[in-house]
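PT: before anyone asks, these are the final sequences, not the draft ones from last week. 227 residues across everything. Please model them as a single complex and drop the result in this thread when it's through.
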Amino acid sequence: DVKVTQSSRYLVKRTGEKVFLECVQDMDHENMFWYRQDPGLGLRLIYFSYDVKMKEKGDIPEGYSVSREKKERFSLILESASTNQTSMYLCASSSPPREDYGYTFGSGTRLTVV
Amino acid sequence: AQSVTQLGSHVSVSEGALVLLRCNYSSSVPPYLFWYVQYPNQGLQLLLKYTSAATLVKGINGFEAEFKKSETSFHLTKPSAHMSDAAEYFCAVSGTSYDKVIFGPGTSLSVIP
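LR: through. Structure below.
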């Protein structure tokens, strides 16, 4: 019954590496989101997308980019990983204005940059 | 614009006691309101939501929340806490189903045996 899948639960990368975090949803949702979650800071929106090939900056886009070539897949890219990007990354999707509106989250990817 | 505040970053209750997690919102339009739960090292799971139907909303795992427009509140309750309820709880708001959802800072619930 998995609906939003994040490809990795745990990742360890080195400083300066290019990192790809993948998210796939099987609910035909139009909207997809990437958040990072840090203790004491809650969820912060990095990027979101309302349609294929569309992307919008969230509150903290610096150091990140995204790609949405297909409706079901939304990738988060860390161009050159840094230690301050060590965090829990959460992907979500939604499809307004359906009655069952709400975000569906993946299980998260805990990224450590060393 | 919408915003959410959650009173108390940490709440502890005894097993079997009432759970009350507070949420107040600000919205310029009739809001959609949500409660999500996050267990350790997992993503967020929708507990319940208010979308302008009944003001008392029942969710999963015995939780419910009441929308009070006059108090701009959407507090989460459960009559009897269980050890498995220990988790992080997030209140969230959006103005319409087309808006982004704004999350509160979260409340960590501990259940004491």
